[in-house]
Design goal:
This protein is α/β, with parallel strands linked by helices. It has ten helices and six strands. The strands form two sheets. A four-stranded parallel beta sheet has the order 4-3-5-6. The protein has a two-stranded antiparallel ribbon with strand order 1-2. The longest helix has 27 residues.
Length: 271
């Protein structure tokens, strides 16, 4: 059987004019690298967490992470909670382009359909909480963008461990100018205000709040998006506002890739 598969593989590659598989296939075909990217597809993680999940030595995990980073499939950001740590993030946009190129290399009919997933009609509403420290920039941006992408079909809220007195003006501005969303009347709220709610997903966007986020009932699925606080950049508006634009674009990309997870059944869902 293995011999038949090999013959079939080489026949297909010959017909497609490819002497070797595309680089994306060669890279993720390694069992450990595939395991790493599947774990990072669910959540941003630190090296020690990946070591525990894949049960392999740290030097080996670090080596394969370097290969994934060199191909721009994985990025790393210094933790804002503990500067000795890095959070690794799977660039799903880059993976999508690589997969599209891989399909097209095999046959034109295999170009990826990029239509967004939609929630099943009549399905129970999914409840999502986005959390960061101040609930003044990252989490309200994520809340607004998910609500926009799902046309209100998802029960989404946001909260913070140490909420600020108001939503950051640049968070209000970037949503209004870039996405046509108005959150000017919204106010930060504390995580305690959502403690009794049923939640299906809790997504932390801040390395600090990930460490102090309380446990919620009903065993929600947990994920972490390691995103630096754009409000930490001080200075004139011409300096700070572009940081909010980049942060909102990063969150918007992550929200778009969250949609198929929310549209799947609980057994299929893997944030």
């Amino acid at each position: 059987m293995k011999h038949q598969i090999s013959l079939m593989y080489y026949s297909v590659m010959a017909l497609s004019g490819q002497a070797t598989p595309p680089s994306f296939v060669r890279l993720v075909a390694h069992p450990l690298r595939w395991r790493l990217v599947t774990e990072l597809a669910r959540s941003d993680l630190r090296v020690r967490e990946l070591v525990s999940l894949v049960a392999q030595p740290q030097n080996l995990v670090s080596y394969h992470l370097r290969l994934l980073r060199s191909a721009a499939l994985v990025t790393a950001r210094r933790s804002t909670f503990d500067g000795r740590d890095n959070y690794y993030h799977l660039d799903l946009d880059h993976c999508a382009h690589a997969l599209a190129g891989t399909g097209a290399a095999l046959h034109p009919a295999l170009r990826m359909d990029t239509a967004a997933a939609t929630l099943r009609p009549g399905s129970p509403p999914v409840a999502v909480l986005f959390a960061c420290t101040g609930n003044s920039a990252r989490s309200p941006i994520a809340e607004a963008l998910l609500r926009r992408h799902t046309a209100g079909q998802v029960e989404v809220t946001s909260a913070g461990s140490r909420p600020k007195p108001r939503i950051h003006p640049n968070a209000v501005r970037v949503l209004r100018e870039e996405y046509g969303i108005d959150i000017a009347g919204q106010h930060p709220r504390h995580l305690d205000t959502v403690a009794g709610r049923r939640l299906d997903y809790v997504i932390t966007l801040c390395d600090k709040v990930r460490e102090v986020c309380p446990e919620f009932g009903h065993r929600p699925r947990l994920a972490h998006w390691s995103i630096p606080d754009p409000a930490a950049v001080s200075g004139a508006d011409r300096t700070s506002y572009p940081v909010f634009q980049r942060t909102a674009a990063d969150i918007d990309a992550r929200v778009r890739y969250l949609l198929p997870v929310l549209a799947s059944t609980p057994e299929e869902a893997q944030p």
